[in-house]
Amino acid sequence: MFRKMWTYSNRLLKLFIPKFGYTGRTVAALLVFLCGVVLIDNIWIREEAFEALVRIDPMPRTQELITQEHYVEANEYLSFFMEYDYVKTSHDAVTLYEEIQEQCSLLNTRG
User: How many domains does the chain have?
Assistant: First the structure.
């Protein structure tokens, strides 16, 4: 892999920078190679950061808010998570969301 990147960077430099001598091309090739290594390393770091993310289950907190009769807060909390596929496809979450919507609409009509 190292040899392949080195030859590609040398070919590019020969095309775009013909006036440099051998040492100039070598330095430029090293710079191109190091930039590639840094970019690849940044991509790996981002992938590792996404692997560390954990899905939050909104159901326990929503149930807690409902038992405290904080329907508006429960509606706001669960509606935030309803945008995510893993919550949107959960039958329990959809059912609870609809129940909260009904309860909120009843509260709004009462005053």
Answer: 2
Q: What is the pLDDT of residue 20?
A: 59
Residue 22 or 28, more confident: 28
Write down the pLDDT at residue 29: 72
Q: Are residues 47 and 16 in the same domain?
A: yes
Burial 6-17 (b: 16+ CB within 10 A, else e): eeebbeebeeee
Do residues 64 and 97 share a domain? yes
**pLDDT digit string, tens, across residues 28-74:** 777 777 766 666 666 666 666 666 677 889 999 999 999 998 988 99
Same domain as 28, residue 8: yes
Nearest to 79 by CA among 104, 54, 110: 104
Rounded to whole angstroms, how far apart are CA atoms 104 and 110? 10
Neighbours of 68 (CB within 10 A): 10
Domain that holds residue 82: 59-110
Do 99 and 78 meet the contact criterion of CB atoms below 8 Å apart? Answer: no
